[in-house]
């Protein structure tokens, strides 16, 4: 008489694999919809958190399946292992975000000039949904930034304003910053050599043409828009999105000519939520380092 031993089956392990696969697919779909689609950040965080919760439940079920495999030899070891692999993506991202949330300062607006930050040309305003935050940056927030990011400071270049402006625009395009508004461009003077006129040619043209009436300037129908920044400042405001998840940041860059140098300051603010998870400081530092490389040779102390 032959006795055939039938191994029990761990239903928890198989449910863990199904749940982990669903959470992984949901997380990937949410990330793609936020990065390339119309999904806003508050909805992205809610759905990504839900996917992470499902992944956490699948890990618990996978642990039960592995325990059953160890103690009674129940089938489901491969299913538990696959569940752990599928749950790794949503849980890993959620863990990294939680670490940044608790161990980095709760700031949504950082700048290289904490005493007088570059002003916005157009104040960012969006519906925060379930991510409310204070609209005004307080001196206490700036003090927290100084303590957390002491090396976040502006750059001074021994170059003309127009030369630095060209470098700022080039690095902004290379960094993925889309410039949406500018102010103070009249402070950038054209090269004086291009404006030199030969007096002999002027005299010849005057003799050939005779007396030519000079039209008067038409009065302005609307007054000029006042400068937002200082009298000699050049301001550039733009938008930036993180490469992977597509978090939106508003950016403003200020150029100020002082003596024979040009000072560049920068400000970055996350568009949603009270916490930028440290990405704002990383954005500013990365941009300024790229600007140093672009303007290599004219950077001052």
Brief sketch in words of this structure:
The chain is an alpha+beta fold. Helix content is 45%, strand content 14%.
What labels describe this entry?
six-stranded antiparallel beta sheet; alpha+beta
Report on the structure:
It is built from seven helices and six strands. By secondary structure, it is α+β, with helices and mostly antiparallel strands. The protein has helices at residues 11-36, 41-72, 77-103, 139-148, 161-174, 199-209, 279-294; strands spanning 109-111, 155-157, 178-183, 233-241, 248-258, 261-270. The model is unreliable at 190-195 and 212-225 (pLDDT under 50). The longest helix has 32 residues, at 41-72. The protein starts with 10 loop residues before the first helix and ends in a 7-residue tail after the last helix. Strands 1, 2, 3, 4, 5 and 6 form a six-stranded antiparallel beta sheet that branches.
List the helices and strands and how they pair.
Layout: H1 11-36, H2 41-72, H3 77-103, E1 109-111, H4 139-148, E2 155-157, H5 161-174, E3 178-183, H6 199-209, E4 233-241, E5 248-258, E6 261-270, H7 279-294
Antiparallel strand pairs: 1-6, 2-6, 3-4, 4-5, 5-6
Helix pairs in contact: 1-2, 1-3, 2-3, 5-7
